[in-house]
Amino acid sequence: MSRILIRNGRIIDPANQIDTTGDLLICDEKIDRIDNQIETEASQTIDATGLIVTPGLIDMHVHLREPGFEHKETIASGTRAAAAGGFTSVVCMANTDPVADSPDVIELIRSQVRKDGATNVFPVGSITKNLDGEGLTDVPALLKAGAVGLSDDGKTVMDAGLMRDVLALSAKYNFPVMVHCQEHNLDEGAVMNLGEMSRRLNLPGSPNAAEDIIVARDIMLAELTGGHLHVLHVSTAGSVDLVRWGKRRGVNVTAEAMPHHFTLTDAAIEEHGTNAKMHPPLRTQTDVDAIIEGIKDRTLDAIATDHAPHALFEKAQGMLEAPPGIIGSETCVPLVFDRLIHTGQLTLSEAIAKMTCVPAKILQIDRGTLSIGAVADVTLIDPEKIATVDVTQSPSKSRNTPFDGWELKGWPLMTIRDGVINQWC
Ligand code: DOR
């Protein structure tokens, strides 16, 4: 019988409103006890003095690239990067090759995870076949195969009728429709935010309106159908306002924010070039401030990474040609601590909720809690550790980040998944 005793940590489990200093015992892959002091025999004892003990973190938005783009990332490398970043569960998007638009591809991903995954992986199926924006996938079959939600992430479903139909199915079968919001007719060829900076750099820009219009449309369609809309990677002040408005009206809408969107502005393009190019783009300080406000007042429910690996040669093609996206698995926790917790924007419990019980609830997965009897997924974080991001040390196959060399305070130290200590953190 395996018994892991975590001693004297600050145990924070927002799902159960726990914030206490004490011991946590894991027995046979399950959370067994939380108490001030537990006296028992253990096969492993971990001294967590000065550390935070949380439910295993969930990243509800990553791109693992397998099948099809294994030169950027694989399930093995991407989940190792996630584990190194303190995550025990990730949700992988459908824009693989072949696209995750059939039960076969969902099963392919799940079997590869069973063989080589360093975290739990919950796959997302696509909304439209081959991400073509034209015909809906077989939604019940995808859900039956294990998809936790549907998304054409990377692209917007431009046909409002199709969006209405998939949201109606969401109301019927109870799953989140995770939407990428970009009115492609308004920002064709755009490589950054439209504004002073894009004009100065003479690069094509995407207006905030391109995002806001789709967010507004989809909230209205969620209201019409009763479906669950989840807005991916919110980047504009307008979107924050619209999601807030939707929630006030009682629409079933949730949303997520990414560390890069609450940390950087479009000025980062000047220094980091293609390593600061992503969809939706980095915006202005007004948008950053609005996103932080939205995170604080729970308009933006979850924090996720949009870990989007691309190879060096792809990012070397210049701003116009390089694919959008940055890696983010290993910089998420330190950015949340450094930018939101240590600055007093969020309490520890509020921040941890956004990476544990909140995404678990959105996705309806049985993770993200330290409830007695729950599967033992646990993350240990040192809030005082100061370290410098060194992208050369990442288990990811890709290196595309603007945060290389940043000194940040607050780092994950260890993850335990299914009661087993993960060696990658
Ligand atoms: O920047 C992005 N990259 N945004 C997306 O929505 C897709 C992602 C990718 O797949 O590279």
Describe this structure in words.
It is built from 14 helices and 17 strands. It has 425 residues and is an alpha/beta fold. The strands form four sheets. Strands 1, 2, 3, 4, 5, 15, 16 and 17 form an eight-stranded mixed β-sheet that branches. A four-stranded parallel β-sheet has the order 9-12-13-14, sandwiched between helices. Strand 1 and strand 2 form a beta hairpin. The chain is globular and about 65 Å long. It binds (4S)-2,6-dioxohexahydropyrimidine-4-carboxylic acid (DOR).
β-strand percent reads: 15-25%
Shape: globular
The CATH class name of the largest domain reads: Alpha Beta
The SS-based structural class is: alpha/beta
Would you tell me which CATH topology of the largest domain applies? TIM Barrel
CATH homologous superfamily caption of the largest domain:
Metal-dependent hydrolases
Number of helices: 14
Our Rg estimate from Cα atoms comes to: 20 Å
Q: What compounds sit in this structure?
A: (4S)-2,6-dioxohexahydropyrimidine-4-carboxylic acid
Q: Give the number of domains.
A: 2
Query: What is the number of E strands?
Result: 17
Terminal CA distance reads 24 Å
Overall pLDDT metric: 98
Reported for the largest beta sheet, the result is: 8 strands, mixed
Q: Which ranges are low-confidence, i.e. pLDDT below 50, for 5 or more consecutive residues? A: none
* Quaternary status: single chain
